[in-house]
Structure to design on (976 residues):
DNA sequence: AATGAATGAGGGTTCATTCAT
DNA sequence: AATGAATGAACCCTCATTCAT
């Protein structure tokens, strides 16, 4: 009996995969060049089809943009929602373990480029703005708000002056990191950040800022360490910072 | 015999003012639309001149972009440098008073748009990348690094795991705020942040994160509270969220 | 089963013919208006396509010019080379019969316009100058040099003071005729030359100038008439001006 | 009493000289670049005035072109007319001495560029065509026609098949030489012609072609030389052409 | 379904011409 | 008279979109 032909991307499979292949290609090109400067030729070519084929799947360049934005971040946000909902434990642990991993994964995925794309294009495409605010910004903000709120509720964190501001202090550098990766970060200038370690350090810093100073324990035990978790089982990797 | 009257916007005066007028207009249009989607007509019209006039002062649209970037942020960064160098006192005070004011001013100025512009355009204009990294990123980062370092040297802050990362945790939300103002923030969706208060709260949060737990106090008694100035003359404005 | 009908100007056939159609149109328009004053729209329209189509085949107006020049005269020069190499007989006969026919054909062809084009454009397009000198001027000059040299070698012509000058005396009026056809000659002013007859007369005049006075005949008697063939089978057409 | 200021080109003199200075500059620029590609800025600059000044003297670029053409060759033609009318002697001598000198001077003068200019521009400027035909071509042709006719009348020349054609055989290379000087000749490619010697040789060749073979003299004297003047007092400089 | 040749509106840029100084 | 800043029409070229094959 003859073995299956390697079949590679068979015609049938290609056809079904086309829309996603086109979205992937479009995301790449739009993020690299910006929507206005991107050529539909380039998108088609990177997807391995002809320019005409692109128009069989998306009726215009702008519709393609909308599809790219619509399909690229929602699942990443949902992933965050799922993670947070799945872990019932301490907020600090959740941040340290799962939020860090979640953003590290997001940063490494092509979807990270959507942040740059949004920044660039929202003002020219108002319909997209509404979608982005409703489907990405708000749920994303909500996930982290829930995490911090849980920390407050559990007594891990003291209530900050303005919870929403604290969420932004936590969130914006992560977003900015994604943006940077596709802007200056793609220009190979100088020794760049180790992004994953920055995520961990940043989250740790926020934990430190929010953590209720263990006043009693400190006074009694004198563990004059940083305000972070006293147990330190999963604490921040101690690094070059010179211990006194 | 009377001298020539200053004659309002005389030919001569207009000519001297033109380059800056054009830069201002170009910054607005480029930030709103993105460089590629911006029409030179629009820039000229917003500057109150005809399209041809623009080319008397800048040889091409791309040169105009470079001029916009070159002339818009360097002075703002220098301002930060000056502020930091001028104030010899505590790092916390410096952050709370002057860094906040500095970024609030920057955010309100049109120059804040340059951050968006850079994000959008660096990859398409490599010469710009080098300039931006050298003249804006590096000095800007350095100013805040110096502030934090001063705090460490003076014993206000404990040495963070990675100073550079801490600088970014402080800086990136401020940059992102500028970017946001010209992206989603310009789309009037939902109740937006009070940006100035966010700046203050964010800086305060970072101060909290970095502050050395008042060890002396710890040893003596229990005032393990936030490491900020005990007198609190210039402390964070107490607000609703923080019932005393 | 019948094969596909040739289907008139099918897409495929058009595509293959396009480059030449565009070259033909471009030659016409450039020669009529001059390169700088010619509009690419006009070229496209005369070729029966839209402006954009032109750019599918030639990347710029200047490249189109170069293609026009490169493809239009080289074959005509090669034709002359072939003619001269193919005929082993007398130089006089070669001039009278074949060189005349060659230039008459060249004058009637659109390629004659390239001479005007070159004159107009060489100084603005130095790359073209080199090509023209190497591929048109030199070989063209060489063909006629060979003819005259053959006449000298065979004793038909006496060696002129400067062979190259003689070649130019022969060649330049022919070139000028081509130029004139597309300049003043196209303005229908006054009774114009019968160009074909001029070519014949001019060549005849040069033959007369170069011909070795028929020494033998001179010695014998007085038939000191024009040095042409005594039998005159292929001699100059007797015309009105020369009553027999 | 103060001495006269050096005054150089005094204001007054400059003002009166302006039109001619502008014409000279325009001729140079138009001949170099072609009318369409020439910029009025360049013309003004080369004349040492501002662009606006040019328009004080000529109402448009096209009017400037007409003035250039109108003022540049007529006097040269008139010069030829004068020379021919002033010398009553032999046509051969006239050609050899004065026609050669006349064209050599013309070739060296900037006016030689007008031939190129005409070739380039007649079709785009019909009014100019009429002027050129009437004021340059016709009189210029007439001067040489008169010379040849005189030669025929005096028995120096035998009547050619078509006198007008003979005139063109004589004239066109001279014109072409002027044209070449400002086209390929200005591109410095390879060893170019010694133009003055070519003029002499060309005229000599035409004399040879037209000269009535001195049958009697030749038969008797056996001076088997070229058919040129038997006395050779002012004959062609004998050159490298190997004497038998 | 897929192709890619063709289209033509749109935008960057130039430059002849004008006009306030 | 002279200047040169300003204008805007015109032109080269690009690229999203269409459609015959």
């Amino acid at each position: 009996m003859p073995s299956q032909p390697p079949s590679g991307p068979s015609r049938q499979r290609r056809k079904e995969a086309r829309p996603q292949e086109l979205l992937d290609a479009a995301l790449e090109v739009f993020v690299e060049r910006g929507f206005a400067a991107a050529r539909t030729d380039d998108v088609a070519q990177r997807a391995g089809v002809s320019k005409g084929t692109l128009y069989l799947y998306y009726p215009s360049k702008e519709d393609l943009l909308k599809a790219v934005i619509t399909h690229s971040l929602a699942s990443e946000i949902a992933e965050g929602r799922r993670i947070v909902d799945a872990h019932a434990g301490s907020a600090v642990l959740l941040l340290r373990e799962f939020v860090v991993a979640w953003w590290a994964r997001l940063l490494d995925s092509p979807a990270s480029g959507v942040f740059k794309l949004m920044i660039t294009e929202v003002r020219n495409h108002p319909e997209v703005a509404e979608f982005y605010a409703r489907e990405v910004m708000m749920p994303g903000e909500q996930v982290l708000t829930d995490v911090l709120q849980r920390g407050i509720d559990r007594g891990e964190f003291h209530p900050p002056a303005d919870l929403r501001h604290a969420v932004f202090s936590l969130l914006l550098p992560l977003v900015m990191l994604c943006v940077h990766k596709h802007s200056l970060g793609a220009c190979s200038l100088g020794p760049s950040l180790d992004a994953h370690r920055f995520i961990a350090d940043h989250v740790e810093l926020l934990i430190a800022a929010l953590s209720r100073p263990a006043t009693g324990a400190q006074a009694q035990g004198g563990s004059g360490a940083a305000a972070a978790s006293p147990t330190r089982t999963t604490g921040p990797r101690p690094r070059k910072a010179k211990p006194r």
